[in-house]
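Hey, I'm writing a tutorial for new members on how sequence and structure tokens pair up, and I'd like a real worked example in the thread rather than a made-up one. If someone can provide the structure for the chain below, I'll link this post from the tutorial.
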Amino acid sequence: MALSDACFDFLEAVGRAARELAEAVHFYSAPDHPLRYGDEIDALRRACLAVAASPYDAEGGAQLLRLATAVMRYHDTPAGSTASPDHQAKAQNLVNLLQSRVDVWDVAAIPSIVEHVLRETPFTERAARRLGAILPTLPKPDGESIAGVIAKIGASTAKKALGLEENLTTLAQRQVDVGILTIKDEEFEAVLQAFPDGSDVYVSPATHRHYNMRITEAAGGATYRVAIMRQSEQGNGEAQSAARDLIEDLSPRLILVVGIAGALPSKDVTLGDVVLSLRVHDYTVEARHESHDPTYAMAGGPVGKRIEHHVANLRARSQDIGDWTKGLPERPSVLVEDGDLYGPADWNNNVRESLEYHFASKTRPPKFCSGVIASSDRLIKDTRILIPWLQTARHLLAVEMESGGVYRAARERCAMLAIRGISDVVGFRRDEQWTRYACASAAAFARAYLRTEPIEPGKRSHESVVNTPFEETGCRKA
């Protein structure tokens, strides 16, 4: 397809989107709609119709983009209603406090957010969820003050969405330092065993996700508050959704994707070893044409300078990491026979050589290394798929199915890192015991990794967190 054809398709899509938005705007501008709008609704409708009629008009398209962005940032405004002077004063105090603390881009939206949170409207839950993302970023006294006011005079829908009750302290107590995302049952069990300190379960009233709250040690006697969750199915789509919910519910500053992956045959990594993602290559978007090899629109990118540089220096942190392999189960054996190999002959030779290299000594403990991880929505055990990937990224170490989605959700919101135990070498049919062993090695290293303090721990002591009454943590039994 010519480049001009692609541009034509894009502009046609813009025209269709403008027509769909015009229909929605028409619905909300009806005279009998319960919410009254101002001139902005008419301006938005006119802009939609103009772009739908002429999607090639760059100036009209830019105007529609500006109007749609403005309406999205400013919440819908409910019809006026009376309120007591005390209620109005408290509402204005909340507005003033929030506007003095939030980013400049959110200042204009604060009055409408507060209005919806304090009074029942069709948009109360939406406004409460947006406020719920803001509260954990505020200084603790401010967050407590705002949560206290909403608990007393807020709309019931908002209280439910925020999890606020008269005896609940604040959302800040549910904020965590680290979120750990797992996928398979074996991964989930291994991580829970590696982080045994704590047993509370928080069920988000907004997303209904279940988070297992744990405490683990950081460097220098500090601690991290950790939330462990299992996503409901494999794949980058569910991983993106789970990571987004985790960020909105608990505001972690670091997300770890902990589990298993397949490795390419190499002398860098093998079965049972652990790979840390300095970069995630997302091969989810694939194009297939008749009589042609598939091509990929590679997305993803580096995990971020702070984590990247921290991981690059881990060899110097051996004292903090400690003997992370202690307590792992006995390493399964590897016997390479011709019937266990698949793929092209040269690939078979590489697999055999790499396994013989790594398993010449039966006593070698697992090791960790860092590099590029490939992610897609496929379970990769086909050398025909990997070979095109290697033509675009020669230094791939491992392949898996979730980090691309987590990368998309976490980008510009929090740091992320994949910690993957190698359960397969593509081209080799191995003993199933390697799955559980790789899960255990990844979980054990994840705990050791946090001892190197990749992010600054929250200002809390281990004892104070462990001894916090259950009902004051914002958690409830599942």
